[in-house]
Amino acid sequence: MKMTPAQRDQIAADAAARYRPGATWEQIAADYGVTGDYVRRTTIARHDLTYRRWGQQPIADVDVVLRRREDGQTLDQIAEALGWSHQAVRTALETAKREPATRYPRFVTSPPTDRRRDRRGERFVPGVSARAT
């Protein structure tokens, strides 16, 4: 399908706006029925973008995410409403709270030291050897 310059400019403008907060080239391309490579090349030719490093987590606007989260929206609702990826919203939330947003918080934090016991059932204190006492 041959696109007009105006259509290419529109795709590039939309892609630039969506790529910065965390959308992938493939996600953007799916909305236009073209390839991720086409969107990337078209956008880079028209906009000054910095590529995200491989594996780097995109970060959405932390204040916006926190405000919407406090209003009771889910991560998916925030991502859809703002056109960001789910991971970008999640990363922003974790950045703001300095803790992973997970359904299973007990897997993230270690148990209190007063509950941990060694093999003999004695209380475990990090950095202190049981034999030293």
General description of the model:
The chain is mainly alpha-helical. The protein is 50% helix and 0% strand. The protein has 7 helices and no strands. It has helices at residues 5-19, 25-32, 36-46, 62-70, 75-82, 86-97, 105-108. Helix 1 runs antiparallel to helix 2 (25-32). It is elongated, with a radius of gyration of 23 Å. The relative contact order is 0.11. Residues 113-123 have a biased composition (Basic and acidic residues).
What secondary-structure arrangement, pairings included, does this model have?
Layout: H1 5-19, H2 25-32, H3 36-46, H4 62-70, H5 75-82, H6 86-97, H7 105-108
Helix pairs in contact: 1-2, 1-3, 2-3, 4-6, 5-6
Which features does this protein show?
single chain, 133 residues, mainly alpha
- What general outline do the C-alpha atoms trace? elongated
Number of helices: 7
| Cα distance spanning the termini | 78 Å
Helix percentage: 40-55%
Low-confidence stretches: none
Averaged pLDDT = 76
Largest sheet: none
Cα gyration radius (Å)? 23 Å
Please count the beta strands (DSSP E, at least 2 residues each). Answer: 0
Structural class: mainly alpha
Encode the helix/strand succession as letters: HHHHHHH
Strand percentage, roughly? under 5%
